[in-house]
Amino acid sequence: PVRPTLPVDILFRKGGEPLVCLTAYTTPVARLVDPHCDVVLVGDSLGMVLYGLPSTLGVTMEMMIAHGQAVMRGITHAMPVIDMPFGSYEESPGQAFRNASRLMAETGAPAVKLEGGVHMQDTIAFLTARGVPVMAHIGLTPQAVNTLGGYKVVGRDDEAAQVMADAKAVQAAGAFSVVLEKTPEGLSERITQALTIPTIGIGAGAGCDGQILVVDDMLGLFTDFQPKFVKRYASLGQTASDAIADYAAEVRTRAFPAPEHSFADVLPAKGAEK
Ligand code: KIV
Ligand code: NA
Hints:
This protein has one domain (8-235): Phosphoenolpyruvate-binding domains (TIM Barrel, Alpha-Beta Barrel), CATH 3.20.20. The chain is 37% helix and 14% strand. It has eleven helices and eight strands. Its EC number is 2.1.2.11.
């Protein structure tokens, strides 16, 4: 029961109740976030969060397809979007279409996200003209970490005009929405007011049309580092660590397994155990 099409109510929601977005990489997590979210992103952040890579640069099409398929099995309500990985779209509009259409065909996701503003305008226009809905991603674009010189705020002072130009370029190219990552709050608000498509912020302040976080970050599961913009709504990493320590102690003292976790040699006369 996978949602097959792009819901236009989400596409054009602007200026109303903020859009709620989270990432998911697996079926069980997709099932958890789906009822609460407008958009579920299969983010290439999975490279760091799931695979222990130092950045998103090592993420492949095969990884995005495998996790996109897993997430699609868990979604019936929200709109799924799948990230295009580094190296799969930058070379040319043709390369981008080939890989975007493969992501959509093999996962069933109705839309893709790619990083870049003015320099991706032609590619976004090429994709949208050929049936690929595109969510853009500007400001801090993690796939460009090596040319940006780190995961710094993008758009302070003189940089602000460039980010505004990027926002206008992706909208003109036909993007249905744009992620603003780590742009200062005043600039994010000005971009949101200047655009007719919804802005989705991550570390971009409260003025955006929606918000997104990496779900493992907000659950306190991924704790390698904690950006300032992440609010932790739970400490699942600590909860898991405590549970694993309890298990280890109980195995070592033979407290686990107890009789109720074991099977009798003779079938009990009455009762349910099979
Ligand atoms: O890969 C990702 O998780 C993302 C966002 C959080 C926007 O691109
Ligand atoms: Na991403």
